[in-house]
Amino acid sequence: xxxxxxxxxxxxxxxxxxxxxxxxxxxxxxxxxxxxxxxxxxxxxxxxxxxxxxxxxxxxxxxxxxxxxxxxxxxxxxxxxxxxxxxxxxxxxxxxxxxxxxxxxxxxxxxxxxxxxxxxxxxxxxxxxxxxxxxxxxxxxxxxxxxxxxxxxxxxxxxxxxxxxxxxxxxxxxxxxxxxxxxxxxxxxxxxxxxxxxxxxxxxxxxxxxxxxxxxxxxxxxxxxxxxxxxxxxxxxxxxxxxxxxxxxxxxxxxxxxxxxxxxxxxx
Length: 268
Description:
With 268 residues, the protein is α+β, with helices and mostly antiparallel strands. 34% of the residues lie in helices and 9% in strands. It is built from eight helices and six strands; from the N terminus they run H-E-H-H-E-E-H-E-H-H-E-E-H-H. Helix 1 packs across helix 2.
């Protein structure tokens, strides 16, 4: 036996619109009239109060503070300084202009959330070097070179290295300066302290002999810097440099006798 399905007709060939389900409100028809929400932060465009007497800056305060930190820090990290990183990202176009006026280039590595500034070199007798970074000695550079290579090959973002492993990185350093093993170890310890100071290494609170390798080192140690340091390292190893330290000389007066690693465009 055949049964017929009840149908609602409207007098036309098109089916009628079914009534809304019970308990489901009608769709709000005014969504298109609502104001759009910006996907990115809107820069400050209103009037700003001067930070000090005579302040004539055209940039918002946050952009000024971001610029100051870029000029005085090795790098700004979203991991370590999230507020500064947000300001650098927001005002990066304005910051690039201000830095270019000083022959400086802004580098931003979004995947690592790292921003830093490097000096740009070109031929001009009027140009002046703005970045004045602290001296990087031979063993600081060697350790930074090894850590940068380690960071580039490591898959884990949370990279750990022990003090013992750091000393093992210097196993290939055999020159006439470092025949005194005690002095050799002290040089390595000073390099560890230096890289901890510039936050390439971060000491673990519960274990002072274990360090976190900052992912920022992969950004700051560019390919050109690594290539340059590798050449100097190979020369240092192959030359068998001689030191002029007298026997029994106090280690606090000892200095590394190679040129500072601070080439144009390769500040780190």
